[in-house]
Amino acid sequence: MSFILNIETATKNCSVSIAKEGKTIIFKEIAEEGYSHAEKLHVFIEEIIAESGISVHDLVAVAVSQGPGSYTGLRIGVSAAKGLCFALNIPLIAVDTLQTLASQAKVSDGKIIPMLDARRMEVYSAIFSADLKTERSILAEVIDENSFIDFTETLYFVGDCAEKCKTVLTKENFVFLEDVKYPSADAMSTISYDKYQISDTVDVAYFEPYYLKDFMIAPPKKQ
């Protein structure tokens, strides 16, 4: 049996799951403003392993969100994943955070645009087809009324940027799926298993999360 532990900590959502042959059998998550990942992650991992009735030695791999996202959150998740992989001598799988988020939009047409909040009107975004093929890779961009204006098909926006972005992204073909806010380890299960089957793994020793270059922010004006 192929049991994979999935860890998603790139956003405010501290999320873990165990999947069997690509199907989630148990997951646990909590999204808090204060980023409780350091306190909750290892507890959640211990709890879902115990509740699933398996041993850590039954795991064939650990999958972790590779970003983009919170620097601190990603570091916590990757450190935990690496520690388990080293201890158990099993492979590490890196999963694109925005792909996980996009996969939570259950649509059959148009395009999916996952966006994660950076600051102000800045986001990390990508574009996927309805069947989750990448159509534009990750960018750090500033959202304004001209963003995505050339698209005529339905665009489904997911992520934690809806509140600020829907005030400027107002075209009739723009749809905000506000119930899909954070990437979840539950949604990683299929992606990580697909990667496991083709041995799409990363080097445990040298893997680093995907940090996009910080936006340039002007210093505050002196009074």
From TrEMBL:
Give start and end of each Gcp-like domain.
36-145
User: Where is the chain membrane-spanning?
Assistant: none
Q: Which UniProt keywords apply?
A: Transferase
Name a single GO biological process: tRNA threonylcarbamoyladenosine modification
Report the GO terms under cellular component: cytosol
What the entry lists under InterPro entries is as follows: ATPase_NBD, Gcp-like_dom, T6A_TsaB
Does Transferase count among this protein's keywords? Answer: yes
Q: Please, which domain of life does this record's source organism belong to?
A: Bacteria
Which GO molecular function annotation, any one, does this entry have? transferase activity
Question: Where is the secretion signal located?
Answer: none
Family matches, as PANTHER family: TRNA N6-ADENOSINE THREONYLCARBAMOYLTRANSFERASE, TRNA THREONYLCARBAMOYLADENOSINE BIOSYNTHESIS PROTEIN TSAB
Supply the name of the protein. Answer: tRNA (Adenosine(37)-N6)-threonylcarbamoyltransferase complex dimerization subunit type 1 TsaB
Question: What species is this protein from?
Answer: Flavobacterium hydrophilum
